[in-house]
Design a protein that fits this description.
- By secondary structure, this protein is an alpha/beta fold.
- The chain has one domain: Alpha-Beta Complex (Spore Coat Polysaccharide Biosynthesis Protein SpsA, Chain A), CATH 3.90.550.
- 37% of the residues lie in helices and 16% in strands.
- The protein has ten helices and seven strands.
- The chain has a seven-stranded mixed sheet, with helices on both faces.
- Strand 2, helix 3 and strand 3 form a beta-alpha-beta unit.
- Helix 6 packs parallel to helix 10.
Length: 262
């Protein structure tokens, strides 16, 4: 196989249950049907369960699937490891739970082929397995975030984003989580997507958004998620990005249309 056209980057932290229900096999089956060559980089973020061993065993007969074994640094770190290892000109970040399945890629690639530098999935509010309290919380976060950042973007938090690899390699080193990595214990929610898209907009890159299917399929039980703690942290990260911009941490914006004032 020659150089891949697409690198699929899949962060992994304590994903045992999702791996066992066959998400890698789903990805492999979809990619085998495509006309372009691809690779899948499973970026294990120091899982404390047996995710690494399960992934290693399952990809033995999956050409183009690679397991990267990284120290625990959080999701942005895991994705960054994948970006650095990616061989293709286009990269896609997708979550291991496949709540947005890989077959939705067909909605993002036309944007990149049409001249956009970044293409992101948008879930809308009509989502399967989306309880009322999360629906209300998502709407509140979206409104709060738009007061400060990225007014033209509907959904920053969908874990299904594609971009040119060169763009990803330029932007990721500027992320707070990469520049000043924190010592983490356990799973931690992050709104690095907000900072990433903010940096892309400031740099003048074209961002396209397309509606994608989404249904909560996350079966993993080893993350210790807390919805209230996640919500507080995501709001705090939005404010940190806004403050960093005001303080000049990111330097001058290259885009005339960048969102610099609330």
């Amino acid at each position: 196989m020659g150089r891949p056209y697409l690198s699929v980057i899949v962060p992994c932290y304590n994903e045992r249950e999702n791996l066992l229900r066959g998400v890698l096999e789903e990805m492999s089956a979809y990619l085998r049907r495509q006309s372009y060559p691809s690779e899948v980089l499973i970026c294990d973020d120091g899982s404390t369960d047996d995710s690494r061993e399960i992934a290693r065993q399952r990809i033995v007969h999956m050409p183009g699937f690679v397991l990267l074994e990284n120290a625990h640094g959080g999701k942005p770190s895991a994705v960054w490891h994948g970006i650095q290892a990616a061989q293709a000109e286009l990269v896609l970040f997708t979550d291991m739970d496949q709540s947005t399945p890989l077959d939705q890629l067909g909605k993002l690639l036309p944007l990149l082929r049409g001249g956009y530098d970044v293409a992101i999935g948008s879930r809308g509010m009509d989502r399967e397995n989306f309880p009322l309290y999360r629906r209300l919380g998502s709407s509140a976060f979206r409104g709060f975030r738009r007061v400060f950042l990225l007014r033209s973007i509907s959904d920053t938090q969908c874990g299904f984003k594609a971009m040119r690899a060169a763009v990803a390699r330029e932007l990721f080193p500027q992320l707070e989580a990469i520049q000043r990595p924190a010592r983490l214990s356990g799973w931690k929610v992050t709104a690095f997507d907000v900072e990433l898209l903010f940096l892309a907009e400031r740099a003048g890159y074209r961002i396209g958004e397309a509606p994608v299917a989404w249904a909560d399929r996350d079966a993993a039980r080893g993350k210790g998620k807390s919805y209230l703690a996640e919500s507080r942290e995501m709001a705090a990260q939005v404010l940190r990005v806004r403050l960093n911009a005001w303080r000049g941490v990111y330097g001058p914006a290259r885009s005339e249309g960048s969102d610099e004032c609330p």
